[in-house]
Amino acid sequence: MFWFSSKNQTMATHISFACFLLLLTISTVAESGSIGINYGRLANNLPTPTQVVRLLKTQGLNRVKLYDTNSDVLTALANSNISVVVALPNELLSSTAKDQSFADNWVQANISKFYPATKIEAIAVGNEVFVDPNNTTQFLVAAMKNIHSSLVKYKLDSAVKVSSPIALTALQSSYPSSSGSFKPELIEPVIKPMLDLIRSTGSYFMVNVYPFFAYKDNSDQISLDYTLFKTNPGVVDSGNGLRYNNLFDAQLDAVFAAMSAIKYDDVKVVVTETGWPSLGDSNEVGASQANAASYNGNLVRRVLTGGGTPLRPKDTLDVFVFALFNENQKTGPTSERNYGLFYPSEAKVYDIPLTVAELATVQTKPPANESKAQAPTTGDMSTSAVGSGQTWCVANGNVGSEKLQAGLDYACGEGGADCRPIQGGATCFDPDTLVAHASYAFNSYYQKKSRGAGTCDFGGAAYVVTQAPKFGTCTFPTGY
Questions:
Q1: Which of 273, 284, 327, 346 is catalytic?
Q2: Which of 166, 336, 388, 450 has the most CB atoms less than 10 A away?
Q3: Integer CA distances (angstroms), 380 to 185, 343, 377, 473, in order
Q4: Does 1 score more than 50 pLDDT?
Q5: Could you tell me if 322 and 314 are in contact, meaning their C-beta atoms sit under 8 angstroms apart?
Q6: Active site residue 273
Q7: Which of 31, 91, 121, 128 is flagged as catalytic?
Q8: Beta-strand relationship, 243-244 and 235-236
């Protein structure tokens, strides 16, 4: 079986003491790992790089992974003290592998030009190359070696490491974890020479781990609680007797087992992508705001409270969450555009702790209903708490009036939304703003369509919330 696919004074004193105890526990029981974030930019509505750097700093995120070497982004990150992983795209692998001078010029233009002001820690040479439809696998190791030689030439090799993220589809087997093994056709030509280079240069193996894909394809066999790091009986590995309390650890240990089988137990692994979508198509089982909040929130807690996996208990976990923003120009299923922790407006898709300090604060709060996720606000919207399972659709006030008006016209026209309450003098006409009126119309359409996947989008002009929106005195219905 394969389980993978391609966030009063006395009371204040008690809280402070509880935070101190939690922080003390984190620092003394086990060394904590690190949380970074993937900053993708396949969208036409994102904040400027300068705004993004400010957002990263306010959220306490000091590691970021990019998918290119965009000069505006690297310039904005200069002197921010944020560590950066940059990428050499798959389409450049062939040229980089065949021509050392090409690699030299690329490193000079994209790395040495910005380092050390921009704290570049590593170069991801390609991304999930083994599943690249353009068949670039043959160029990977040579490209990595040439990039490393260029770093040596510019005396950057001790500071900037070279690696390449792989998907779990590089494994021949992943369940049980102890049976983890790489696909035989990859081992000699690619995996071993890549791990040799990583080992000899003191770099780390980059792995992308997505329990969501495994759950989506095997929801009849895999417990959701097990996938979301929630309380569950766990799964005992029949091969080594180890008990796993979550699928993330089990998948990561399958990679460790595969590395051990070919004698690379000493190579460090960093999870360069993992995450959970807040919205998906009808066949994308488990994609929701509540599940995304649970997965990423519990993942952060898992990483920052220290300790490794059952197979490597002493290793810390270093993880880059995917992703910083929802990206409206990504292709593929709806989920691909909804992995972000933040909307392009910088409002949170859901609220999770991202730092040890935030985690300590969360630990002191009374337990909340786990099925709820905090809704971001837009315009002058206020929200009120609601029962479990309800969702509404509201306008994204940051997309501009043209998109909002187009969405409003469609919803009230061809879409068949009930827009009578927002007509002049009607109950929801006030406040007389485009955001308020569009939100009411979008929600009417969404509810009439039974809150189906993809019915709250309007070209990126709308998003789903889990708290009841309210503009002025107008409350939004939950169904028709």
A1: 273
A2: 166
A3: 57, 17, 8, 12
A4: no
A5: no
A6: yes
A7: 128
A8: antiparallel
